Amino acid sequence: MATGVFIVVTQLPKEALLSWGWRIPFLLSALLVLPGLYMRHRLDETPVFRAFKKQQAINHRQQREERPVVKVVREQWRSILLIIILRFAESVPFFLATVFAVSWATTQLGIASLTILYIVMFTCLLAYPMHVLFGIMSDRRGCRQVYIFGALFVAAMAFPFFWLLESRSLILMTMGYVLLINIGHNSLNAVQPSFFAGLFHPPVRYSGSSIGAQLGAVVAGGFTPFIAKALSAVYDNSWTLVAGYVVLTALASAFAAKIAPETVLPHSP
């Protein structure tokens, strides 16, 4: 949706785009808050959390409970750090392909920006069924195994992705995006909610997974375009160091997934 809106907005005259057109995507994004709130309030709590709340009501502790955010940072900070590392394999290739590669392919390879944006939009549409597929796979093989597979696949695709971009062939470039995003990124993103929540005890799962995921998004994803730009400038806009960065971060995530538990056993606070 975001890519589609961006494609439409970029068709405006330059003066209109700079004066008011750039505001359109931000205003439209506000509409997504309503369905998001609706879905959040319609979700059922997990059996583990319902059992915890029932036990908590039975115990009926008189003392004031410690805030979940404080509790999870104090007791399970290692899990938060683990999530930050886990997010590299998912966030780095996504921001690389949707931000850095769009600019790099346009300026260095002479590919029309609309061509890359249409490819990005196609991979975003394909992400819907791919998330379902990897969700089913995680139910059968476990989130950790799927995550390790996805991280290693991202590492394996780092160099081929740029080779396929350099071909300037629409089919080959699309193949590169599908492999990196729809198999590599989607396999990771699809299992993150379940995998990350399972790293924490039930009373603090929401707080712990949210803190780790958001910090990981900033550290792993937010800085990726800047890091990629800096690395490419080292060797006259070459992508070699950029691909190497993807490999190293993806392998770090694979190792983090390897040592992470599938699910932390519940306990009473």
Automatic annotation (TrEMBL):
Transmembrane intervals: 20-39, 80-105, 111-134, 146-165, 211-232, 238-257
Entry's Gene Ontology molecular function annotations: transmembrane transporter activity
Matching InterPro entries: MFS, MFS_dom, MFS_trans_sf
Membrane topology: Multi-pass membrane protein
Keywords annotated in UniProt: Cell inner membrane, Cell membrane, Membrane, Transmembrane, Transmembrane helix, Transport
UniProt feature coiled coil, ranges: none
One Pfam family in the UniProt entry: MFS_1
Domain Major facilitator superfamily (MFS) profile positions: 79-269
GO CC entries: plasma membrane
Location(s) in or outside the cell: Cell inner membrane
Keyword flag Cell inner membrane: yes
Keyword Transmembrane helix appears in the UniProt entry: yes
Protein name: Shikimate transporter
